[in-house]
Here is the input.
Amino acid sequence: MISIIWKRVKNNRTAVIGLSVILAIGVLAVGAPLFAPYDSSAIDVDNTLAAPTWSHPLGTDELGRDILSRMIWGGRVSLKVGFVAVGIAISIGIFIGALAGFYGGIIDSLLMRFVDMMLCFPTFFLILAVIAIVEPSITTIMIVIGLTSWMDVSRLVRAEILTLKERDFVLAARAIGARDFRVIFRHILPNALSPVFVSATFGVAGAILTESGLSFLGLGVQPPDPSWGNILYSGKDYILTAWWLSVFPGLAILISVLCYNLVGEGLRDALDPRLWRSEK
Amino acid sequence: MEDNTENMNEAAANGEFLLEAREITKHFPARSGLGKTRKFISAVDGVSFGVRHNSVFAIVGESGCGKSTLARMIIRLLKPSSGTVLFKGNDLLAMEGEELLAFRRSAQIIFQDPFASLNPRMRIMDALAEPYRIHKLAPRNEIGARVAELISKVGLNEDALSKYPHEFSGGQRQRICIARALSVSPELIVADEPLSALDVSIQAQIINLLQDIRKGPAISMVFISHDLRVVRYLSDEVAIMYLGRIVERGATEGLFSDPKHPYTEMLLSSAPKLKYSREESSKGLSCRPASGDMPGIVDIPAGCPFHPRCPKRFEPCDKLRPELKASGGSFVACHLYQ
Here is the structure.
């Protein structure tokens, strides 16, 4: 099964490019202490706002800190926020969606009205409001993004389950005597999850963007800890004189979000069993 | 109706029936647009019949007449709105826990569309092992051997076991579905149009497989189809359904050689034959397409539901609904025989 999916993703060139870039960023972020040429908060007073040179490939900021090193460390934050927030979101989403779709009736109505209510809040401002009350840190940001982005997943899962539970193979499983637990976990969920994986991939991109946005507003990761968003934030004052301060973190956000979206699209195509031929 | 129920009660008392449906009805709510005016569609309306031990009971009817709904109700995948279903004399709808599990072991279903009835993410091996696990029919280390035995029984190779459903053709998948149904050694198999999604050449193979199963250990079958030739070949008794009701019921041979209800006549004359006897040709009894369309199930005509299409309708047909009554060896719901 996994080999079939891998083969299909492999045939999709843009998805492979996206995946390679994501993996490269991932390796850099995980191995930050190895790859970063300088400490992320090491100050070089002689070289403040220095343009890119061989010793500082992406230049330095107003305190003389190396942008490349800060970006590698910042990548850690972005990845962590992306994955943990999405993990929280899909766990809640699958649980609520599965409950609503499988049991239907009043449970479904109540849960879906709750989802509608959550969707009414402009997510970003909800997060801003929460951050204004709770002290901003990576952990609170991850949790808040997770708690405010599960609605799409739960709708997806619910819709999938609604169609799946009437399918003949689910009826056949019931006819053979399978109980709810087996029907849900062996027959329904495995078939309902592929759109969730796809949506999770897009979700990582969204979470990275949200974190960058928050950090850019100064409500996310707090200095001196670097994140792509707050490097961009500190660069905005010097955008006319020191373009490298804004351009490189901006590009990093752009490229990684783009690559997650490319992989998401590749996965979406690869996970659709209707597109499977009897290739092996 | 009285004759009918009397006869059924007698048969039931003798324990002749493996499965018996008594006046089962299924309504589906139909909401019209945004309005809250609730209408009900009766997909199945007061259907009674009995399936005898070791026999094949066929249910015939056009698309949309409620055959599949009926199939799902007699196997408790769908609860009837009213009426009872008895399995070996026990109320199927009241079953719970162990008793229900025992019923699941004794009654199985084969669906129409073999492409929809296998879990696309499960290997055949796991799909077939599932019944053994659920009912603990074999020790864990013997399940593999039992599954291999099962797959060869339906004419597939053992290497099929490690594949996924999408790697098979429709006919092969239907064999797998049959294997799954056979895994629990059921006493009753409900086959819901098992042939209509298959090519003609493959249909013949599946018919032979079903015929083999029938000849095997004590097993009864409810065979739902619209293919009259197959029904005649396979079944012992037939019920003809029209718009959720049985219009004629009786022994297969009798019903085919001497159809009583005008609808049955219409169905039989619309089935093409290769050869017509001289008598039939002289009477102009060659293949005639069934005339008219079945009215929608939402607006079932008053009186006899068949009267708008009936060539033999007369005075009471559009006012009174005929009941199913004994006539000769079978039961007919038609004013011509009341």
Remarks:
- The longest helix of chain B spans residues 200-215.
